[in-house]
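User: Quick sanity check before I run a bigger batch. Here is a single chain. Can you write out its predicted 3D structure?
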Amino acid sequence: MTRTPAVLVLLCSSLVLTAVARAAGPQSDPAPMAPARILPSSDLLAARSGAAPVANAAFYPGQDALPAPPFASILQIQQGQLQTYPSLENPLQDGRDARLFPGITLEFFTVEDRLVPVQLGEMVSETTPGQVPSYWRVIPQVGRTWRESGDHGWSRAAFPLMLVSDMENQSQQGLATFLYRDGHVTGLRVQFVQQSAPWLLQRFVAWGFVPVQSRASDPNTLATRRDAARAELAGRLPAKPWSELVRSTPPGTLDGFGGPLYPKWLVLTALERAGTLYYGDSVTPYGPYPYPLEMRFGVRSVMKSVGAPLALLRLAQVYGAWVLALKIGDYIPGLDPKWSRIRFLDAADMATGFGGTGTLKTRPNDINDGYLDGNYDAWYRAPSRAEKLRQINLGLHPYPWEPGTVVRYRDQDFFLLGAALDAFLKSVRGPDADVWEMVKSEVLAPIGIQHAPALRTQEAGGRRGVILFNAGFYPTLEDLARIAMLYQNLGEHEGRQILSRELTADLLAGRGALRKDGDFSVARPSTESTDAELYEMGFHFVPYLDTGHRVLHLPTMEGAGENEVTLYPNGMVSLIMANALQVPEGEHARSQAGPETLRAVERLEPFMSPPH
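Assistant: Done. Predicted structure follows.
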């Protein structure tokens, strides 16, 4: 018998269970089976990949788990074959195979029962490819160690890991486990059971067994590494399961949270309230993902609300608001002459007056008019800065209207803004300056975000590429919550003003925002209506009629696939991670129920007048 029918039966039955579980709302498996029963140690010792993924509970200690001895080792993980369901239609991308787990080196150590990767939060590249390189990089996260009574002296280690691409902002959320004893380590059993925002590849699950060679870590580094890991773990936001928030509120208060997105497309939902992150289950065909707070998501255009705004508002705080008025063309030579009149702010508003695809109709305007035209795919796939600039010059042209007047959704605007910001920073700080490293060290690290993996252009000779501000960030839920909280606090954190307070207040209030359907070159359209959708500096401003009959425009980070991070006047932040980028023909991602998540947050705590 071939493996496909077994996988098909398991996957189809699991999808039915997934739909039932999601309909019931976020919840935890009441009695998960012990890992040793799901995935016996004999399977790991025999290097069996299995006919299908197993229940996710195999990758997390159960109720009867015993303490494991400390672990510290360098794992040389060999390239290995992954089985996929369904079979990948286009597994080879740019000569690299998405059916191969990459040959990489990871180093781990334990802090009590936590398994901590030295490469925590990094995009680890393949260093030992086979005849064909793997399509993937890997981001490892914090896992667990434990012992099972029937494992004959072996201990278990498991950790979450993401397969991510350096071509596009896709993330396959997965799990890995191995046995260790007396300096010996088995290979890795891996499976990838959830995903966010695939584009070049379709949705799939993958699993396999990959060989591992191990060697001892340098014992002189352990104490320092463990101290740093303890401090980082202790500094994380308080987090509680969604069920605790539900129990603390009147019945029905949080009904509909996550909607109107259909539950089948949800990957993970959460709410930040008073500094605590309440998170639901990430439901997969193989049970809840056991490390939801470790998941990293391909959030795509949410990056537009993160990279460029944080960079601009930080630079405005350091140098002055005049930075926003600098011209793109002054920092990127070789562009169309119109770019010498296009400000950094115009690019952040996607109102450059450049793009030249689609129609010239602006009354009413369609923000997505011509978005994927102009040979978009050639630009999207272009690896280097120079090649992306060449594709922009080939495929895009000026519109007849002035910058700052009409919003047209163009990823290329944010790419050029990132390149121009990087060039500006080099002009004032020297050739080694880098705009994303500035954001990481001067904005993200001070608010508690220690790791910020993101995509860059790929340059010859391994040179550091330009950050992709159009899409490419791989954050956790906590990362997104902390960034939103910094905005909510008007750029201040623990008494330190990190971002320009005045400009951050203007941004959250939508002052200067453009109507998506308007043409400001003719007249300034009214924004005081429930159908007035606005855009400014990477944020979508979603109109909402609250219970006091006020029209509010809620600043929202949006990314393809229905990813949304919404900031509320009551200080809360809702987070919805989803994978509805390619919805099958005849299906819809959203119901007609209206703004269910917004209503739930308002029921939880009424909206007050915004403080800005």
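Residues 1-30 have pLDDT under 50 and may be disordered.

User: Great, the batch can go ahead then.
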